[in-house]
User: What shape does this take?
Amino acid sequence: MNLPGPVLPVARTLDFASGAMVPHAEVVVRRLSQMPRAFANSEAVATVLERGEDPVIYRAFPAAVPEQAGHLAYRTTVILPGAVGGEYFMTRGHHHHKDSAELYLGMSGRGLMLMQDRDGRLRVEELVRDVTVYVPPGWAHRTVNTGQDELVFLAVYFSDAGHDYDVIEQQGIGVRVMAGPDGPEVVAADATDLLAVKGESWPT
Ligand code: S6P
Ligand code: ZN
Assistant: This one.
């Protein structure tokens, strides 16, 4: 969104239940057909698409902010409830071209943030209303809706950071979140990674 600067101070309202931001720039809509490789079970994805269905996985309401150094961009995201091949609906996930931090705020619903740095370290944090999750520079992030309702959250990031979807599209993130008989199950690529995810020795 390359708007000319400078901009004037502006107030925008957020509806915590629906995720609507007023005013907002053009809404981003992501359907299953736009992210077929995100889900592990490619047969399940193909089956849904062959049925002629192309469910909306998530929508985002961006604030119109110049993509220039010094600005903060922000947008709400609404991930619908659902699963494909037993894997919960989630965002595509990305790195930022310019490694820089990002702050998430849970607004409604229930989900998990999957994060992985460029060395492969993994971290999973719960995202619910009133919870902030700090994503340090260099950590890819993907958000998963593990609940029955829409998962709504706000993300604030450096406006000139850029979004790099290629690494996650090609390599994925080392954990997946599956619908198990007793609720969400975080499944890691290998046991070592899973220990890292569940480790308690994280600085607070
Ligand atoms: C932006 C921030 C979020 C995501 C949004 C959709 O840096 O992380 O606003 O853009 O949740 O996810 P994705 O992976 O499709 O951009
Ligand atoms: Zn981001």
Notes: The helical segments are 42-50, 166-171, 191-198.
